[in-house]
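Model it.
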Amino acid sequence: VYCKSGNMSADAVADLAALGYTDVVELDGGFDAWVDAGRGLLNS
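Modeled.
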C-alpha cells in the first residue's frame, strides 16, 4: 500500500489489519521517501 507521504497508507494498513488481513506491506514514507532515497520512477 502506498500514497504520496505515507500518512494515508499507514492508516489503510492499520484498517486492513483490523479486518484480518495479514499479508499487507506499506511503502514506508510513501512516494516522497522513495524519491528522496534516489529511487527512480518510470513515466509511461
